[in-house]
Amino acid sequence: MWEVPIARNRQGKASGIGQYGAPNAWRPSASIPMLTCVDDPTRPPRRHVITRIVARLVDFARRDATVIALAGLVLSLAAGYYAAGHLSINTDIGHLLSTDLPWRQQEIALNRAFPQNVDSLAVVIDGTTPELADVGAGALADKLRGEPLLFRSVRRPDGGPFFEHNGLLFLSKDALQTMSDQLVEAQPLLGSIAHDPSLRGLFDALTLFVEAAAKGQMKIDKLDPTLVAIDGVMRSVLAGKSEVLSWQRLMTGVTPKARDLRRFVLTQPVLDFTSLEPGGKATAEIRHLARALALDPEHGVRVRITGPVALNDEEFATLREGAARSTILSLVSVCAVLFAALRSGKLVFAIFATLASGLVLTAGFAAIAVGSLNLISVAFAVLFIGLAVDFSIQFSIRYRDQRYRRGDLAAALHGTGESIGASLLLAAGATAIGFFSFLPTEYQGIRELGVIAGVGMIIAIVLNFVLLPALLALLRPAGEPEPVGFRRAAPLDRLLLTQRGWVIGAAALLAAGGLALLPRLSFDFNPLNLKDPNSESVSTLFDMMKDPTTTPYTAEVLAPSLDAAQVLADRLSELPEVAQAVTMASYIPRDQPEKLAIIDDLALLLGPTLTPAETLSPPGDDQVLTAIAACRDALRSVAAAAGPQSVPARLSQALGEAASRGPVIVAPLRRALLGGLVHQLDLLRLLLQAKPVTLDALPEDLRQSWTATDGQARVEIFPRGDARDNTVLKRFVAAVRTIAPDATGTAVTIQESGRTISGAFVEAGVIAVAAITILLGLVLRRWREVLLVIAPLLLAAILTLATAIVIGLPLNYANIIALPLLLGIGVAFDIYFVMNWRGGLTDHLRSSTARAVIFSAFTTMVAFGSLMLSDHPGTAEMGKLLSLSLAWTLFCTLLILPALLGPAPVARRAVDHPGQSRQDELLS
User: pLDDT tens digit string along 886-912?
Assistant: First the structure.
């Protein structure tokens, strides 16, 4: 029969029944071994070799605490110094996925053939008039070409000499004829302005037209569009605003569309992948030059930057800006929870020191093993803290429990290592195996994370057995005056045992419901949904995606020749999911003979008008004011007959107010009315010189964008419909692949990336569960107990994913990182309870283990829960799923697992002790 001595408490009185049913303040002498479950209760308990090793390791750390602490400090400093000098961050997202994947091979082949299209910064220039946008884009492109150290290439896909000469050929025949007719009607005005391109020339020309209308030589209403446009700009200037007259609209009579008001400059910046913002210098230079050129809203122009480089840079910047706030909030919250759990500043300090040492040592290992962190493996720090803190909390709370039972610090540390060492070691081993399971996957980013985090778990458990006990021995926390655990949870413990059938049935129903929902689980492969929609690069990209011709979500095919590319493009264009398929041949205008004939006729009529023999010298302000007054008077004579609300009357009033302000109004009027005049006249002269366009006549930069040096040609396919809709993109890519199965491009790669990443996690999950199951089988040697560890973990995973489906939280690139954390913490929690149950414990919720589990989960939850407050959508969703998974893990561990375990096997074999229940005979 096992006999449990009744010891005295600190007041010298006999203690009552305490934690685990053991007597309060039970402190056996060092010669009395801690009782464990054995087949023959009359024989002394046998210790597993692992338990003895851990206990001796803890004793060694206690005896040589000073040496251990100094060694830990030296190793940490050395590792930190090495990591600071050798561990870098590689922000090149192209290195995250294996290059051996078929779709990656297709992407690499396309990038190799057209390297100038990779890693681009797109500058979007919007103007209040087409002229402002065009002039601004040209000026900025010229400046950027003068920065070869920052930009490998600079080009204008919608502008430059080629389009300035041949732009009219890309209009339809009907549109070109209509424009030609309008320009012929505007010939008198164009001639006057070309001869005197000043405010004086403009108002003198208007005066002549108005006087001709007054004499009946023309109808005044034919001047209405011109007068209305000038009146609107005049009133804007008088009101202190910066509206600019569109001479293109005035000459052609066509209202510009949003596409006409936008120009692009495509650059390929020199990237620095050692920086969190590889394109930061290039972006800063673009903004500097834009300011120097006065390309700002005040001058009618808006410059925005987007493209792959800008999107990634802004994302890193957003993460960095929110990191400080999240870190401070996490630290404060973790400190509060740890103090509530441990009630000792010395214990909290010891845990933080152990965590810091482990994190630095893991970083040192990462510097040796991988050299540079990618955008996924950089998360090793978050996972290390979230998992390693559990080991420290479990050890520390068990230490508190043993300190209460044994009193003496040395005995308490020995008892801690003896009682929880095997559980912690098994939990750490299972967690490490979970991370190592990522090694066989095709996801390079997660492979490196698996190596670093897996070794980090080994480092963490070693430090918790060596450094943490040494620090506790040096700090010597005060003794424990009362039991550690939740005594009020006893009724719930009894309920879970007596009603375990109902609890198990409810768990089965939850599992069935969750499994029924799992087919609806989706993976959001669109990376734009994880970015801040208010950032410039993302909002600009969304704006571009409204126009199907400028969406970046296209498919691309590499054809062996231009002829083959055109045949493929013709077939693809017939698909209902495709808006258009473009090749280099698309830049050869159709119906060129007919269009050139129209242009030649127009040049014959307008040529002499646009190229006068001489132009007048610029007028003085007085001459301008005189011309304004003359135009005002001419309009008044017409307005008398047309009425006070007529167009001539309104413009006459505006001109009168302008004249009354004197010379101060001349400069603002010149900027507003003539800002795009000279450019538009020059452009019109060039457009009238169009020549037949052939493939050989295409500019070199355009040719290089569509045909490679080896003759291969590119086909770019644009989707029909909203490219931001994942369903539209899926149908689009599937349709394109029916004709071009080797298609690549952004629309393809983002979907394939999603499949690869989600597949990698599924593959790693299966491997991890299998490997952990084998490990547990080898250690526990009872398959029922193995299932007891795995079952709550699987249930928590099912409930987490089912809840995500219900609340509309899809898996994505960011929050999927919660799954390995769920696996690690879930396995650890379940192992603690099952190992206690093997030792004879059934009052799980009253135990110190339950306290440790709860506070460990809360510590991790508040640490990661702060991520939900991030301005970055991806980070916020990661925090949501992490918190959700931790909540379900805690639910399954505390409520479902005890019911699954049932009565402890030792409790069924124990012999009743007088005055005590079988449970009261069992120790932690």
Answer: 889 889 988 998 888 888 775 444 333
